[in-house]
Amino acid sequence: xxxxxxxxxxxxxxxxxxxxxxxxxxxxxxxxxxxxxxxxxxxxxxxxxxxxxxxxxxxxxxxxxxxxxxxxxxxxxxxxxxxxxxxxxxxxxxxxxxxxxxxxxxxxxxxxxxxxxxxxxxxxxxxxxxxxxxxxxxxxxxxxxxxxxxxxxxxxxxxxxx
Amino acid sequence: xxxxxxxxxxxxxxxxxxxxxxxxxxxxxxxxxxxxxxxxxxxxxxxxxxxxxxxxxxxxxxxxxxxxxxxxxxxxxxxxxxxxxxxxxxxxxxxxxxxxxxxxxxxxxxxxxxxxxx
Lengths: 162, 118
Fold this sequence. Notes:
The complex is a heterodimer of chains A (162) and B (118).
Chain A: E1 8-10, E2 16-23, H1 27-35, H2 37-43, E3 49-56, E4 63-70, E5 75-86, E6 90-97, E7 108-117, E8 120-128, H3 132-160
Antiparallel strand pairs in A: 1-2, 2-8, 3-4, 4-5, 5-6, 6-7, 7-8
Chain B: H1 7-15, H2 17-26, E1 31-32, H3 33-40, H4 44-56, E2 60-65, E3 68-73, H5 75-112
């Protein structure tokens, strides 16, 4: 059984990213935390910044938009539209990154699936894009933040060794 | 001087689905080329061509044993790719840790509401 502490990321095809994570909660709660603006405000930015906006019009054709202020002071926005909603089970939605220099990025299609077993929930988040270049760019976006954190950890370590 | 394989080369080498399949098979241990031909269902020249690309970027190593050529995975060459995905994974792990906290609160609330989680 995978540890619930870390997300497993794989690249099933050149155009896909799959994230799998288990949560110690029934799926109705995981679904609620995923789809309720006040709750999304509390987790979606991770440690990379502060959430400023979470708007969710949870119906097919409805729009969503998240805006966070990253630790560097700049704003990062995403928005999209819901394509399919099966309450507590599955949400399919588009996702557009607003920060591209030449306008918005082409939309990615995300499918979030919630499967419950023994009171625990496995979340599978599949991101599908048009090309390997776009997929790699998305993965790359996590890398910048990762490198930043590594530098901070390195600095802490260096200070502790003084 | 031998050309040093760059990270970009390794990325391109493993971008091809058949080559990824070869790496999958080799992740189970060293194998002769005939095994790869059988498992992939490809003709030997095609398999050899893919193996050559993988060797060029250092993703696989080869040695001769008797009349057989044995291929094995070289994890070190693939480490940049592993690291690349790992950092993305870490940013999602951090996000999910905060989601865990939200879920703990929701579970507490559900208890207070008489155990109804819906």
